[in-house]
Specification:
alpha/beta; 8-stranded mixed beta sheet; globular; disordered C terminus; binds adenosine monophosphate; binds manganese (II) ion
Length: 296
């Protein structure tokens, strides 16, 4: 693969908490000269078909993926899963549980916000979320913005929705180790998203990353806006030490997340090749059957 290929491996659409449809994401990627885009909506493959169809019309490769809600020692860890068989039963079961946890949490969050004096109904959030399969705090934030309670999503989180704020409610997430195994068994490649971003830095040290690699972890996302220059250097060294692939990506959410513009961080072509090789190895080892046409 040529060295100038531009690869962004972590993006969201309206299938979760992004503000673009999958087709709009693909069109934007083409317009910006990206060659490869990872579609990684939270806990759902609902955007895959539309994105794959749109990508077939332009010169963009879509790497079908997920960003899965997991937990290690009580800390939230986001696990990127590239090219897993979305019909692998243990994966389907866990994603169902996570999505149910999201829906169940919504009612509890809104009750807490109402108790704090905000007028907000479940119907309003569901209308705002539209066709999203994964209902999240950003959708609640959007309603709070629309009703004038806060200026933007950032203020909604800082004032009401972040851990420790009045509207925060915990939700179900799979154990990180279990999910690394499930993704690998599903023929996919597991990569930890923003490992030293908010929340997970304390738990994801060298020993834990080594243990997760033992369960099948393929890589870590190093170049991400949540990591400062020092964190990137240290994580790169850790990855080299542990033989993990290094990825870079925008974590694009459309207008839903500032300073995460599409293509703002990129993955090196040789690292992308290693990632695809790992997924191919896992797929052939487990006989997983992701439709060939959907593989890049
Ligand atoms: P949830 O998936 O419902 O737990 O909400 C987490 C999502 O909210 C993340 O994936 C981000 O997209 C978004 N988010 C988290 N913190 C913030 C923040 N401070 N400002 C804006 N969006 C945020
Ligand atoms: Mn998000
Ligand atoms: Mn994340
Ligand atoms: Mn993300």
């Amino acid at each position: 693969m040529l060295p100038h290929v531009r690869i962004d491996l972590h993006t969201h659409t309206r299938a979760s908490d992004g503000t673009h449809s999958p087709s709009e994401l693909v069109a934007l990627a083409a317009a910006q000269g990206l060659d490869v885009v990872g579609l990684t909506d939270h806990d759902s493959a609902a955007g895959w078909d539309e994105a794959a169809r749109a990508a077939a019309e332009v010169d963009v490769t879509i790497v079908l993926g997920l960003e899965i809600s997991t937990k290690y020692s009580g800390a939230g860890v986001h696990l990127l899963a590239y090219l897993p068989d979305p019909a692998y039963p243990p994966l389907v079961d866990e994603l169902d549980r996570i999505l149910e946890g999201r829906t169940g949490r919504l009612a509890a969050m809104l009750a807490r916000l109402r108790a704090a004096g905000l007028e907000i109904e479940e119907q309003e959030v569901m209308r705002r979320a539209g066709t999203a399969a994964a209902i999240g705090r950003p959708h609640v934030a959007d309603v709070l913005v629309a009703k004038g309670y806060v200026a933007d999503r950032t203020e909604a989180f800082a004032t009401w929705l972040d851990y420790g704020r009045a509207g925060y409610v915990n939700r179900y997430a799979t154990s990180t180790t279990d999910m690394v195994r499930i993704v690998s068994e599903a023929g996919g490649a597991a990569v930890i998203a923003h490992p030293w971003g908010r929340g997970s830095r304390q738990v994801l040290d060298r020993a834990v990353l080594a243990e997760l690699r033992g369960a099948g972890l393929v890589g870590i996302e190093v170049d991400h806006q949540d990591h400062d220059a020092g964190a990137r250097v240290a994580l790169r060294e850790l990855a080299a030490d542990l033989g993990l692939v290094v990825t870079g990506s925008s974590d694009f959410h459309g207008t839903g997340k500032v300073d995460h513009e599409l293509g703002c961080n990129l993955t090196a072509p040789d690292q992308y090749e290693r990632l695809l090789d790992a997924a191919a190895r896992n797929a052939s080892a487990t006989g997983s059957d992701v439709p060939v046409a959907l593989r890049p």
